[in-house]
Amino acid sequence: MSSPSDQTAQRRLAAVLAADVVGYSDLMSKDEEGTLARLRDLRRQVIEPSIRSHHGRLVKTVGDGFLVEFSSPVEAVRCAVDLQKSVASTSSKEAMRPLQLRIGINIGDIMIEEDGDIFGDGVNIASRLQKMALPGGICLSAKVYEEVRDKLPFEFEDRGEHRFKNIGRPIKVYCLLEGLDSSEASGERRFVPPVLNQPSIAVLPFVNISKDPEQDFFADGIVEDIIAALSRFRSFFVIARNSTYAYKGRSINVQQIGRELGVRYVLEGSVRRSADRLRITAQLVDAMTGVHLWAEHYDGVVADVFDLQDQITASVVGSIQPSIRAAEIERARRKRPENLDAYDLVMRALPYVWSLEYEGNREAARLLEKALLLDPGYPLALSLAAWCRGQRIVYNWSTNIREDKRETLRQAQTAAALCHDDPFILTVLGAALTITKEYQRATFMLDRALSLDTNSAWGWNRSGWLRNYQDDPEVAIQHFERSLRLSPFDPMAFNCEMGIGCAHFIAKRYDQATQWQEKALMAKPTAAWIHRTLAPSYFLAGELDKAQESVGELLKGYPGITVTDILQAMAFSKEAMSRFAEGLRQAGLPE
Protein backbone atom coordinates (compact mmCIF):
# COMPACT_ATOMS: atom_id res chain seq x y z
CA MET A 1 0.00 0.00 0.00
CA SER A 2 1.74 3.19 -1.16
CA SER A 3 1.51 6.40 0.85
CA PRO A 4 -0.19 9.43 -0.64
CA SER A 5 1.76 12.59 -1.26
CA ASP A 6 1.46 15.42 1.26
CA GLN A 7 0.15 17.73 -1.51
CA THR A 8 -2.95 15.62 -2.26
CA ALA A 9 -3.72 14.16 1.19
CA GLN A 10 -5.78 15.68 3.98
CA ARG A 11 -5.62 14.55 7.61
CA ARG A 12 -8.37 13.89 10.14
CA LEU A 13 -9.10 11.77 13.20
CA ALA A 14 -11.41 8.84 12.42
CA ALA A 15 -12.57 5.44 13.61
CA VAL A 16 -11.51 2.83 11.03
CA LEU A 17 -13.18 -0.56 10.61
CA ALA A 18 -11.35 -3.25 8.63
CA ALA A 19 -13.06 -6.57 7.82
CA ASP A 20 -12.52 -9.68 5.74
CA VAL A 21 -14.25 -13.00 5.01
CA VAL A 22 -12.80 -16.00 6.86
CA GLY A 23 -11.36 -18.75 4.65
CA TYR A 24 -12.09 -16.86 1.44
CA SER A 25 -9.36 -18.57 -0.62
CA ASP A 26 -10.60 -22.00 0.42
CA LEU A 27 -14.19 -21.07 -0.45
CA MET A 28 -13.09 -19.77 -3.86
CA SER A 29 -11.10 -22.91 -4.63
CA LYS A 30 -14.19 -25.06 -4.03
CA ASP A 31 -16.84 -22.85 -5.70
CA GLU A 32 -15.55 -19.70 -7.33
CA GLU A 33 -18.77 -18.49 -8.99
CA GLY A 34 -20.98 -19.38 -6.05
CA THR A 35 -18.65 -17.69 -3.53
CA LEU A 36 -18.48 -14.50 -5.61
CA ALA A 37 -22.29 -14.43 -5.91
CA ARG A 38 -22.74 -14.97 -2.16
CA LEU A 39 -20.21 -12.25 -1.34
CA ARG A 40 -21.86 -9.82 -3.78
CA ASP A 41 -25.29 -10.47 -2.22
CA LEU A 42 -23.84 -10.09 1.28
CA ARG A 43 -22.38 -6.69 0.42
CA ARG A 44 -25.57 -5.44 -1.21
CA GLN A 45 -28.06 -6.83 1.34
CA VAL A 46 -26.13 -6.67 4.63
CA ILE A 47 -22.81 -4.81 4.62
CA GLU A 48 -23.66 -1.61 2.72
CA PRO A 49 -27.07 -1.03 4.42
CA SER A 50 -25.52 -1.55 7.87
CA ILE A 51 -22.71 0.90 7.13
CA ARG A 52 -25.19 3.53 5.95
CA SER A 53 -27.44 3.09 8.97
CA HIS A 54 -24.49 3.75 11.30
CA HIS A 55 -23.33 6.82 9.34
CA GLY A 56 -20.17 5.19 8.05
CA ARG A 57 -18.41 5.66 4.72
CA LEU A 58 -17.42 2.57 2.74
CA VAL A 59 -13.91 3.53 1.62
CA LYS A 60 -13.19 0.54 -0.58
CA THR A 61 -13.63 -3.19 -1.08
CA VAL A 62 -10.65 -5.37 -1.95
CA GLY A 63 -11.38 -9.01 -2.82
CA ASP A 64 -12.89 -10.49 0.34
CA GLY A 65 -12.29 -7.43 2.54
CA PHE A 66 -13.57 -3.90 3.00
CA LEU A 67 -12.55 -0.72 4.79
CA VAL A 68 -14.98 1.71 6.47
CA GLU A 69 -14.51 5.16 8.03
CA PHE A 70 -16.65 6.49 10.92
CA SER A 71 -16.61 9.80 12.71
CA SER A 72 -17.79 8.03 15.91
CA PRO A 73 -16.13 4.95 17.49
CA VAL A 74 -19.45 4.10 19.15
CA GLU A 75 -21.13 3.88 15.74
CA ALA A 76 -18.19 1.84 14.41
CA VAL A 77 -18.58 -0.77 17.16
CA ARG A 78 -22.38 -0.83 16.84
CA CYS A 79 -21.99 -1.35 13.10
CA ALA A 80 -19.51 -4.19 13.68
CA VAL A 81 -21.86 -5.99 16.08
CA ASP A 82 -24.80 -5.56 13.71
CA LEU A 83 -22.70 -6.87 10.83
CA GLN A 84 -21.69 -10.00 12.73
CA LYS A 85 -25.28 -10.71 13.81
CA SER A 86 -26.64 -10.12 10.30
CA VAL A 87 -23.96 -12.23 8.61
CA ALA A 88 -24.60 -15.07 11.09
CA SER A 89 -28.35 -14.81 10.50
CA THR A 90 -27.96 -14.82 6.71
CA SER A 91 -25.43 -17.68 6.69
CA SER A 92 -27.52 -19.87 9.01
CA LYS A 93 -30.20 -20.08 6.30
CA GLU A 94 -27.72 -21.44 3.74
CA ALA A 95 -27.06 -25.13 3.26
CA MET A 96 -23.45 -24.53 2.23
CA ARG A 97 -20.53 -23.49 4.44
CA PRO A 98 -21.51 -20.25 6.26
CA LEU A 99 -19.67 -17.00 5.64
CA GLN A 100 -17.96 -15.43 8.64
CA LEU A 101 -16.27 -12.08 9.12
CA ARG A 102 -13.29 -10.95 11.15
CA ILE A 103 -13.37 -7.28 12.17
CA GLY A 104 -10.78 -4.89 13.62
CA ILE A 105 -11.47 -1.31 14.76
CA ASN A 106 -9.03 1.48 15.60
CA ILE A 107 -9.09 5.26 16.16
CA GLY A 108 -6.25 7.23 14.66
CA ASP A 109 -5.03 10.06 12.52
CA ILE A 110 -5.60 9.11 8.88
CA MET A 111 -4.68 10.63 5.53
CA ILE A 112 -7.37 10.95 2.84
CA GLU A 113 -6.53 11.15 -0.85
CA GLU A 114 -8.58 13.01 -3.45
CA ASP A 115 -10.23 9.73 -4.53
CA GLY A 116 -11.35 9.09 -0.93
CA ASP A 117 -8.87 6.31 -0.14
CA ILE A 118 -7.34 6.42 3.36
CA PHE A 119 -3.84 5.62 4.65
CA GLY A 120 -1.68 5.81 7.76
CA ASP A 121 -1.08 3.96 11.05
CA GLY A 122 -4.72 4.42 12.01
CA VAL A 123 -5.65 2.20 9.03
CA ASN A 124 -2.74 -0.21 9.39
CA ILE A 125 -3.55 -0.97 13.05
CA ALA A 126 -7.21 -1.63 12.20
CA SER A 127 -6.00 -4.10 9.55
CA ARG A 128 -3.69 -5.88 12.03
CA LEU A 129 -6.52 -6.10 14.59
CA GLN A 130 -8.81 -7.61 11.95
CA LYS A 131 -6.26 -10.37 11.27
CA MET A 132 -6.10 -11.13 15.01
CA ALA A 133 -9.90 -11.43 15.45
CA LEU A 134 -11.59 -14.82 15.68
CA PRO A 135 -14.11 -15.92 13.04
CA GLY A 136 -17.27 -13.98 13.89
CA GLY A 137 -15.27 -11.81 16.30
CA ILE A 138 -14.27 -8.17 16.76
CA CYS A 139 -10.93 -6.80 18.06
CA LEU A 140 -10.54 -3.21 19.25
CA SER A 141 -7.55 -1.06 20.08
CA ALA A 142 -7.37 0.39 23.59
CA LYS A 143 -8.26 3.82 22.16
CA VAL A 144 -11.58 2.50 20.85
CA TYR A 145 -12.23 0.57 24.06
CA GLU A 146 -11.77 3.66 26.24
CA GLU A 147 -14.25 5.58 24.08
CA VAL A 148 -17.01 2.92 24.07
CA ARG A 149 -16.62 0.95 27.32
CA ASP A 150 -19.19 2.99 29.28
CA LYS A 151 -21.50 3.67 26.35
CA LEU A 152 -22.27 0.20 25.00
CA PRO A 153 -23.77 -2.81 26.82
CA PHE A 154 -21.13 -5.29 25.64
CA GLU A 155 -18.51 -7.37 27.47
CA PHE A 156 -14.86 -6.94 26.51
CA GLU A 157 -11.86 -9.15 27.17
CA ASP A 158 -8.43 -7.61 27.75
CA ARG A 159 -5.97 -9.44 25.49
CA GLY A 160 -2.92 -7.51 26.65
CA GLU A 161 -0.32 -5.70 24.54
CA HIS A 162 0.77 -6.97 21.13
CA ARG A 163 3.43 -5.94 18.66
CA PHE A 164 2.34 -5.79 15.03
CA LYS A 165 4.46 -5.74 11.91
CA ASN A 166 5.57 -2.23 10.87
CA ILE A 167 3.94 -0.64 13.95
CA GLY A 168 6.62 0.89 16.16
CA ARG A 169 4.84 0.62 19.51
CA PRO A 170 2.89 -2.15 21.30
CA ILE A 171 -0.90 -1.95 20.91
CA LYS A 172 -3.24 -3.00 23.69
CA VAL A 173 -6.05 -5.17 22.33
CA TYR A 174 -9.57 -5.86 23.53
CA CYS A 175 -11.94 -8.50 22.19
CA LEU A 176 -15.68 -7.94 22.07
CA LEU A 177 -17.41 -10.93 23.69
CA GLU A 178 -21.14 -10.22 23.92
CA GLY A 179 -23.65 -10.09 21.12
CA LEU A 180 -21.78 -12.36 18.72
CA ASP A 181 -23.03 -15.86 19.46
CA SER A 182 -26.66 -16.01 18.40
CA SER A 183 -28.63 -15.71 15.24
CA GLU A 184 -31.53 -13.59 16.44
CA ALA A 185 -33.42 -13.49 13.17
CA SER A 186 -33.58 -17.25 12.77
CA GLY A 187 -33.74 -18.13 16.44
CA GLU A 188 -30.92 -20.64 15.90
CA ARG A 189 -27.48 -20.63 17.50
CA ARG A 190 -24.49 -20.67 15.22
CA PHE A 191 -21.10 -22.23 15.99
CA VAL A 192 -18.98 -20.13 18.30
CA PRO A 193 -15.38 -21.26 18.76
CA PRO A 194 -14.95 -22.36 22.39
CA VAL A 195 -11.79 -20.28 22.66
CA LEU A 196 -13.59 -17.56 24.61
CA ASN A 197 -15.02 -19.85 27.27
CA GLN A 198 -12.39 -22.43 28.26
CA PRO A 199 -8.80 -23.43 27.46
CA SER A 200 -8.81 -25.08 24.05
CA ILE A 201 -6.01 -26.74 22.13
CA ALA A 202 -5.25 -28.22 18.72
CA VAL A 203 -2.40 -30.72 18.27
CA LEU A 204 -1.11 -30.35 14.72
CA PRO A 205 0.45 -33.25 12.78
CA PHE A 206 4.14 -33.45 13.63
CA VAL A 207 6.40 -32.74 10.67
CA ASN A 208 8.73 -35.52 9.50
CA ILE A 209 12.00 -33.69 8.72
CA SER A 210 14.07 -36.86 8.31
CA LYS A 211 14.62 -38.62 4.98
CA ASP A 212 12.80 -41.74 6.19
CA PRO A 213 9.10 -41.66 5.18
CA GLU A 214 8.45 -44.45 7.69
CA GLN A 215 8.81 -41.87 10.46
CA ASP A 216 5.48 -40.38 9.34
CA PHE A 217 3.74 -43.28 11.10
CA PHE A 218 5.76 -42.72 14.26
CA ALA A 219 4.96 -38.99 14.23
CA ASP A 220 1.26 -39.68 13.66
CA GLY A 221 1.24 -42.15 16.55
CA ILE A 222 2.71 -39.58 18.92
CA VAL A 223 0.10 -37.01 17.93
CA GLU A 224 -2.77 -39.48 18.38
CA ASP A 225 -1.51 -40.44 21.85
CA ILE A 226 -1.14 -36.79 22.88
CA ILE A 227 -4.65 -35.94 21.66
CA ALA A 228 -6.08 -38.95 23.56
CA ALA A 229 -4.20 -37.99 26.73
CA LEU A 230 -5.24 -34.33 26.56
CA SER A 231 -8.86 -35.33 25.94
CA ARG A 232 -8.94 -36.78 29.46
CA PHE A 233 -8.62 -33.27 30.91
CA ARG A 234 -12.23 -32.21 31.35
CA SER A 235 -11.09 -28.58 31.66
CA PHE A 236 -9.66 -28.61 28.09
CA PHE A 237 -11.49 -28.45 24.79
CA VAL A 238 -9.36 -30.62 22.47
CA ILE A 239 -9.87 -30.47 18.70
CA ALA A 240 -10.39 -33.91 17.15
CA ARG A 241 -7.64 -35.54 15.06
CA ASN A 242 -9.66 -35.40 11.83
CA SER A 243 -9.85 -31.60 12.03
CA THR A 244 -6.16 -31.03 12.77
CA TYR A 245 -4.96 -33.49 10.12
CA ALA A 246 -6.51 -31.24 7.49
CA TYR A 247 -3.41 -29.06 8.06
CA LYS A 248 -0.92 -31.84 7.35
CA GLY A 249 1.64 -30.78 4.79
CA ARG A 250 0.35 -27.20 4.69
CA SER A 251 2.37 -24.17 5.78
CA ILE A 252 -0.13 -21.98 7.66
CA ASN A 253 0.38 -19.34 10.32
CA VAL A 254 -0.45 -20.66 13.81
CA GLN A 255 -2.63 -17.64 14.53
CA GLN A 256 -4.71 -18.38 11.44
CA ILE A 257 -5.10 -22.00 12.53
CA GLY A 258 -6.20 -20.78 15.96
CA ARG A 259 -8.84 -18.54 14.38
CA GLU A 260 -10.11 -21.23 12.01
CA LEU A 261 -10.35 -23.93 14.69
CA GLY A 262 -11.38 -21.57 17.48
CA VAL A 263 -8.57 -22.55 19.87
CA ARG A 264 -6.36 -20.60 22.24
CA TYR A 265 -3.39 -22.94 22.05
CA VAL A 266 -1.64 -24.97 19.37
CA LEU A 267 0.92 -27.75 19.88
CA GLU A 268 3.26 -28.37 16.95
CA GLY A 269 6.37 -30.50 16.55
CA SER A 270 8.73 -32.42 14.33
CA VAL A 271 10.45 -35.81 14.03
CA ARG A 272 14.03 -36.28 12.82
CA ARG A 273 15.84 -39.59 12.36
CA SER A 274 19.58 -39.91 11.80
CA ALA A 275 20.80 -43.52 11.54
CA ASP A 276 19.54 -45.18 14.75
CA ARG A 277 18.90 -41.94 16.61
CA LEU A 278 15.56 -40.12 16.87
CA ARG A 279 14.86 -36.57 17.96
CA ILE A 280 11.35 -35.29 18.64
CA THR A 281 10.69 -31.59 19.21
CA ALA A 282 7.46 -30.08 20.50
CA GLN A 283 6.36 -26.53 21.22
CA LEU A 284 3.23 -24.99 22.66
CA VAL A 285 2.10 -21.72 21.09
CA ASP A 286 -0.48 -19.15 22.19
CA ALA A 287 -2.59 -18.99 19.03
CA MET A 288 -3.90 -15.54 19.96
CA THR A 289 -0.49 -13.87 20.08
CA GLY A 290 1.90 -16.30 18.42
CA VAL A 291 4.02 -16.35 21.60
CA HIS A 292 5.80 -19.64 22.40
CA LEU A 293 4.83 -20.78 25.91
CA TRP A 294 6.97 -23.92 26.15
CA ALA A 295 9.34 -25.96 24.00
CA GLU A 296 11.29 -29.18 24.51
CA HIS A 297 13.10 -31.91 22.60
CA TYR A 298 13.38 -35.63 23.28
CA ASP A 299 16.14 -37.99 22.11
CA GLY A 300 16.20 -41.77 21.83
CA VAL A 301 17.09 -44.75 19.70
CA VAL A 302 14.92 -46.45 17.12
CA ALA A 303 15.06 -49.77 18.98
CA ASP A 304 13.20 -48.16 21.91
CA VAL A 305 10.70 -46.41 19.68
CA PHE A 306 7.56 -47.43 21.60
CA ASP A 307 9.01 -46.62 25.02
CA LEU A 308 10.22 -43.30 23.61
CA GLN A 309 6.75 -42.57 22.25
CA ASP A 310 5.19 -43.20 25.69
CA GLN A 311 7.85 -41.04 27.38
CA ILE A 312 7.29 -38.18 24.95
CA THR A 313 3.52 -38.33 25.37
CA ALA A 314 3.78 -38.28 29.18
CA SER A 315 6.33 -35.45 29.19
CA VAL A 316 4.48 -33.30 26.67
CA VAL A 317 1.11 -33.67 28.38
CA GLY A 318 2.66 -33.17 31.82
CA SER A 319 4.27 -29.94 30.61
CA ILE A 320 1.31 -28.62 28.64
CA GLN A 321 -1.09 -28.61 31.57
CA PRO A 322 0.89 -26.21 33.82
CA SER A 323 1.90 -24.09 30.79
CA ILE A 324 -1.72 -23.62 29.76
CA ARG A 325 -2.75 -23.08 33.36
CA ALA A 326 -0.17 -20.30 33.68
CA ALA A 327 -1.38 -18.69 30.43
CA GLU A 328 -5.02 -18.89 31.55
CA ILE A 329 -4.14 -17.34 34.92
CA GLU A 330 -2.39 -14.47 33.15
CA ARG A 331 -5.36 -13.99 30.79
CA ALA A 332 -7.80 -13.82 33.73
CA ARG A 333 -5.47 -11.43 35.59
CA ARG A 334 -5.67 -8.96 32.70
CA LYS A 335 -9.48 -8.88 32.66
CA ARG A 336 -11.25 -5.97 34.30
CA PRO A 337 -12.81 -6.94 37.68
CA GLU A 338 -16.34 -6.09 36.54
CA ASN A 339 -16.01 -8.56 33.64
CA LEU A 340 -14.95 -11.57 35.72
CA ASP A 341 -17.09 -14.71 35.56
CA ALA A 342 -16.79 -17.86 37.69
CA TYR A 343 -14.11 -19.34 35.44
CA ASP A 344 -11.98 -16.18 35.58
CA LEU A 345 -12.28 -16.07 39.36
CA VAL A 346 -11.09 -19.68 39.59
CA MET A 347 -8.13 -18.89 37.31
CA ARG A 348 -7.25 -15.92 39.52
CA ALA A 349 -7.51 -18.13 42.60
CA LEU A 350 -5.21 -20.89 41.31
CA PRO A 351 -1.79 -19.33 42.05
CA TYR A 352 -3.00 -18.57 45.58
CA VAL A 353 -4.26 -22.15 45.99
CA TRP A 354 -0.83 -23.52 45.04
CA SER A 355 1.12 -20.97 47.08
CA LEU A 356 0.60 -23.06 50.25
CA GLU A 357 0.85 -19.86 52.29
CA TYR A 358 -1.59 -18.47 54.84
CA GLU A 359 -2.38 -15.17 53.11
CA GLY A 360 -2.53 -16.89 49.72
CA ASN A 361 -4.97 -19.42 51.13
CA ARG A 362 -7.23 -16.65 52.42
CA GLU A 363 -7.22 -14.85 49.06
CA ALA A 364 -7.93 -18.10 47.19
CA ALA A 365 -10.87 -18.83 49.49
CA ARG A 366 -12.25 -15.32 48.90
CA LEU A 367 -12.09 -15.62 45.10
CA LEU A 368 -13.54 -19.14 45.12
CA GLU A 369 -16.40 -18.01 47.34
CA LYS A 370 -17.22 -15.31 44.77
CA ALA A 371 -17.07 -17.90 41.98
CA LEU A 372 -19.50 -20.17 43.84
CA LEU A 373 -21.90 -17.29 44.40
CA LEU A 374 -22.00 -16.88 40.60
CA ASP A 375 -22.17 -20.63 39.95
CA PRO A 376 -22.93 -22.78 43.04
CA GLY A 377 -22.62 -26.01 41.04
CA TYR A 378 -19.20 -25.32 39.50
CA PRO A 379 -17.25 -28.56 40.27
CA LEU A 380 -13.74 -27.10 39.91
CA ALA A 381 -14.55 -24.17 42.22
CA LEU A 382 -16.09 -26.55 44.78
CA SER A 383 -13.09 -28.83 44.56
CA LEU A 384 -10.54 -26.06 45.00
CA ALA A 385 -12.55 -24.55 47.85
CA ALA A 386 -12.43 -27.97 49.54
CA TRP A 387 -8.67 -28.15 49.09
CA CYS A 388 -8.23 -24.65 50.55
CA ARG A 389 -10.04 -25.82 53.67
CA GLY A 390 -7.91 -28.96 53.68
CA GLN A 391 -4.78 -26.81 53.63
CA ARG A 392 -5.97 -24.93 56.71
CA ILE A 393 -6.02 -28.25 58.58
CA VAL A 394 -2.74 -29.62 57.21
CA TYR A 395 -0.72 -26.41 57.73
CA ASN A 396 -2.04 -25.44 61.17
CA TRP A 397 -4.09 -22.48 59.94
CA SER A 398 -7.48 -23.80 61.06
CA THR A 399 -9.30 -22.27 64.03
CA ASN A 400 -11.90 -25.05 63.95
CA ILE A 401 -10.39 -28.33 62.71
CA ARG A 402 -13.57 -30.36 63.17
CA GLU A 403 -15.68 -27.93 61.11
CA ASP A 404 -13.01 -27.61 58.42
CA LYS A 405 -12.68 -31.39 58.10
CA ARG A 406 -16.45 -31.76 57.74
CA GLU A 407 -16.72 -28.97 55.16
CA THR A 408 -13.64 -30.13 53.22
CA LEU A 409 -15.15 -33.57 52.77
CA ARG A 410 -18.61 -32.20 51.93
CA GLN A 411 -17.39 -29.87 49.19
CA ALA A 412 -15.01 -32.48 47.73
CA GLN A 413 -17.77 -35.11 47.63
CA THR A 414 -20.24 -32.64 46.08
CA ALA A 415 -17.74 -31.81 43.33
CA ALA A 416 -17.07 -35.51 42.65
CA ALA A 417 -20.81 -36.26 42.49
CA LEU A 418 -21.20 -33.52 39.85
CA CYS A 419 -18.13 -34.61 37.87
CA HIS A 420 -17.35 -38.21 38.76
CA ASP A 421 -14.80 -38.85 35.99
CA ASP A 422 -12.61 -35.75 36.31
CA PRO A 423 -9.17 -36.87 37.56
CA PHE A 424 -8.36 -33.56 39.27
CA ILE A 425 -11.63 -33.53 41.20
CA LEU A 426 -11.17 -37.18 42.24
CA THR A 427 -7.65 -36.32 43.38
CA VAL A 428 -9.01 -33.58 45.63
CA LEU A 429 -11.52 -36.03 47.10
CA GLY A 430 -8.68 -38.49 47.68
CA ALA A 431 -6.70 -35.73 49.43
CA ALA A 432 -9.73 -34.81 51.58
CA LEU A 433 -10.18 -38.45 52.60
CA THR A 434 -6.47 -38.59 53.46
CA ILE A 435 -6.88 -35.61 55.79
CA THR A 436 -9.80 -37.33 57.53
CA LYS A 437 -7.65 -40.52 57.71
CA GLU A 438 -10.02 -42.62 55.58
CA TYR A 439 -7.06 -44.21 53.85
CA GLN A 440 -8.83 -47.09 52.11
CA ARG A 441 -11.30 -44.78 50.36
CA ALA A 442 -8.53 -42.28 49.68
CA THR A 443 -6.46 -44.99 47.97
CA PHE A 444 -9.42 -45.96 45.78
CA MET A 445 -10.05 -42.34 44.72
CA LEU A 446 -6.40 -41.56 43.97
CA ASP A 447 -5.89 -44.81 42.07
CA ARG A 448 -9.03 -44.08 40.07
CA ALA A 449 -7.82 -40.52 39.32
CA LEU A 450 -4.44 -41.81 38.14
CA SER A 451 -6.06 -44.48 35.97
CA LEU A 452 -7.99 -41.68 34.24
CA ASP A 453 -4.92 -39.47 33.90
CA THR A 454 -1.57 -41.19 34.35
CA ASN A 455 0.19 -37.89 33.58
CA SER A 456 -1.22 -35.91 36.50
CA ALA A 457 1.74 -34.54 38.44
CA TRP A 458 -0.50 -33.49 41.32
CA GLY A 459 -2.20 -36.91 41.39
CA TRP A 460 1.19 -38.58 41.90
CA ASN A 461 2.05 -35.96 44.54
CA ARG A 462 -1.05 -36.73 46.58
CA SER A 463 -0.54 -40.47 46.11
CA GLY A 464 2.99 -40.01 47.46
CA TRP A 465 1.70 -38.29 50.59
CA LEU A 466 -0.91 -41.00 51.11
CA ARG A 467 1.82 -43.68 50.96
CA ASN A 468 3.81 -41.67 53.52
CA TYR A 469 0.82 -41.66 55.85
CA GLN A 470 0.48 -45.42 55.35
CA ASP A 471 4.13 -46.02 56.31
CA ASP A 472 5.16 -47.02 52.79
CA PRO A 473 8.09 -44.62 52.20
CA GLU A 474 9.72 -46.42 49.26
CA VAL A 475 6.56 -46.33 47.13
CA ALA A 476 5.98 -42.74 48.30
CA ILE A 477 9.41 -41.72 46.97
CA GLN A 478 8.66 -43.39 43.61
CA HIS A 479 5.40 -41.43 43.30
CA PHE A 480 7.01 -38.10 44.25
CA GLU A 481 9.82 -38.70 41.75
CA ARG A 482 7.28 -39.46 39.03
CA SER A 483 5.46 -36.21 39.82
CA LEU A 484 8.73 -34.28 39.54
CA ARG A 485 9.57 -35.92 36.19
CA LEU A 486 6.16 -35.03 34.80
CA SER A 487 6.24 -31.40 35.88
CA PRO A 488 9.64 -30.26 37.17
CA PHE A 489 8.72 -26.55 37.05
CA ASP A 490 5.33 -26.94 38.69
CA PRO A 491 4.75 -24.68 41.72
CA MET A 492 4.12 -27.88 43.71
CA ALA A 493 7.61 -29.28 42.94
CA PHE A 494 8.95 -28.17 46.33
CA ASN A 495 6.08 -30.05 47.98
CA CYS A 496 7.32 -33.25 46.31
CA GLU A 497 10.79 -32.57 47.75
CA MET A 498 9.16 -32.19 51.15
CA GLY A 499 7.35 -35.48 50.62
CA ILE A 500 10.60 -37.26 49.76
CA GLY A 501 12.19 -35.75 52.88
CA CYS A 502 9.36 -37.03 55.07
CA ALA A 503 9.58 -40.46 53.41
CA HIS A 504 13.26 -40.66 54.42
CA PHE A 505 12.24 -39.62 57.97
CA ILE A 506 9.71 -42.45 58.08
CA ALA A 507 12.45 -44.84 56.90
CA LYS A 508 14.77 -43.41 59.62
CA ARG A 509 17.24 -42.03 57.09
CA TYR A 510 17.51 -38.71 58.89
CA ASP A 511 20.49 -37.24 57.01
CA GLN A 512 18.61 -37.64 53.73
CA ALA A 513 15.42 -36.37 55.38
CA THR A 514 17.15 -33.10 56.31
CA GLN A 515 18.78 -32.72 52.86
CA TRP A 516 15.49 -33.02 50.97
CA GLN A 517 13.60 -30.74 53.35
CA GLU A 518 16.37 -28.14 53.17
CA LYS A 519 16.05 -28.28 49.37
CA ALA A 520 12.29 -27.67 49.67
CA LEU A 521 12.86 -24.78 52.09
CA MET A 522 15.34 -23.16 49.70
CA ALA A 523 12.70 -23.33 46.95
CA LYS A 524 9.96 -22.02 49.29
CA PRO A 525 11.59 -20.02 52.11
CA THR A 526 8.26 -18.50 53.20
CA ALA A 527 6.79 -21.93 54.07
CA ALA A 528 7.38 -21.87 57.83
CA TRP A 529 5.38 -25.11 58.21
CA ILE A 530 8.36 -27.04 56.75
CA HIS A 531 10.12 -26.58 60.10
CA ARG A 532 7.49 -28.80 61.79
CA THR A 533 9.20 -31.85 60.26
CA LEU A 534 12.65 -30.38 59.53
CA ALA A 535 13.39 -29.60 63.21
CA PRO A 536 12.82 -33.20 64.41
CA SER A 537 14.78 -34.48 61.40
CA TYR A 538 17.74 -32.32 62.49
CA PHE A 539 17.46 -33.57 66.07
CA LEU A 540 17.36 -37.24 65.10
CA ALA A 541 20.25 -36.67 62.68
CA GLY A 542 22.30 -35.50 65.69
CA GLU A 543 22.21 -31.77 64.86
CA LEU A 544 20.65 -30.22 67.97
CA ASP A 545 21.76 -26.65 67.20
CA LYS A 546 20.10 -26.74 63.78
CA ALA A 547 17.00 -28.32 65.34
CA GLN A 548 16.71 -25.49 67.86
CA GLU A 549 17.25 -22.91 65.11
CA SER A 550 14.54 -24.58 63.06
CA VAL A 551 12.08 -24.44 65.97
CA GLY A 552 12.88 -20.74 66.33
CA GLU A 553 11.94 -20.20 62.68
CA LEU A 554 8.78 -22.23 63.20
CA LEU A 555 7.71 -20.01 66.12
CA LYS A 556 8.29 -16.88 64.02
CA GLY A 557 5.78 -18.15 61.50
CA TYR A 558 3.44 -19.70 64.11
CA PRO A 559 3.66 -17.74 67.37
CA GLY A 560 2.47 -19.89 70.25
CA ILE A 561 2.29 -23.18 68.32
CA THR A 562 2.75 -26.36 70.36
CA VAL A 563 3.64 -29.99 69.79
CA THR A 564 -0.03 -30.88 70.40
CA ASP A 565 -1.17 -28.43 67.70
CA ILE A 566 1.16 -30.02 65.16
CA LEU A 567 0.12 -33.58 66.01
CA GLN A 568 -3.54 -32.61 65.46
CA ALA A 569 -2.74 -31.35 61.95
CA MET A 570 -0.64 -34.28 60.77
CA ALA A 571 -1.86 -37.59 59.36
CA PHE A 572 1.23 -39.82 59.74
CA SER A 573 1.18 -43.15 61.57
CA LYS A 574 1.34 -43.16 65.37
CA GLU A 575 4.92 -44.45 65.32
CA ALA A 576 6.14 -41.70 62.95
CA MET A 577 4.18 -39.07 64.87
CA SER A 578 5.82 -40.09 68.14
CA ARG A 579 9.27 -39.53 66.57
CA PHE A 580 8.22 -36.15 65.14
CA ALA A 581 6.85 -35.16 68.57
CA GLU A 582 9.98 -36.27 70.45
CA GLY A 583 12.24 -34.37 68.06
CA LEU A 584 10.17 -31.19 68.43
CA ARG A 585 10.19 -31.43 72.23
CA GLN A 586 13.94 -31.99 72.38
CA ALA A 587 14.44 -29.03 70.03
CA GLY A 588 12.57 -26.79 72.47
CA LEU A 589 8.97 -26.60 71.22
CA PRO A 590 6.42 -26.40 74.07
CA GLU A 591 4.12 -29.36 74.63
UniProtKB/TrEMBL annotation:
<dbReference type="InterPro" id="IPR011990">
    <property type="entry name" value="TPR-like_helical_dom_sf"/>
</dbReference>
<dbReference type="InterPro" id="IPR050697">
    <property type="entry name" value="Adenylyl/Guanylyl_Cyclase_3/4"/>
</dbReference>
<dbReference type="GO" id="GO:0035556">
    <property type="term" value="P:intracellular signal transduction"/>
</dbReference>
<dbReference type="Pfam" id="PF00211">
    <property type="entry name" value="Guanylate_cyc"/>
</dbReference>
<dbReference type="InterPro" id="IPR029787">
    <property type="entry name" value="Nucleotide_cyclase"/>
</dbReference>
<dbReference type="GO" id="GO:0006171">
    <property type="term" value="P:cAMP biosynthetic process"/>
</dbReference>
<dbReference type="InterPro" id="IPR001054">
    <property type="entry name" value="A/G_cyclase"/>
</dbReference>
<protein>
    <recommendedName>
        <fullName>Guanylate cyclase domain-containing protein</fullName>
    </recommendedName>
</protein>
<feature type="repeat" description="TPR">
    <location>
        <begin position="457"/>
        <end position="490"/>
    </location>
</feature>
<keyword id="KW-0802">TPR repeat</keyword>
<feature type="domain" description="Guanylate cyclase">
    <location>
        <begin position="15"/>
        <end position="130"/>
    </location>
</feature>
<dbReference type="GO" id="GO:0004016">
    <property type="term" value="F:adenylate cyclase activity"/>
</dbReference>
<dbReference type="InterPro" id="IPR019734">
    <property type="entry name" value="TPR_rpt"/>
</dbReference>
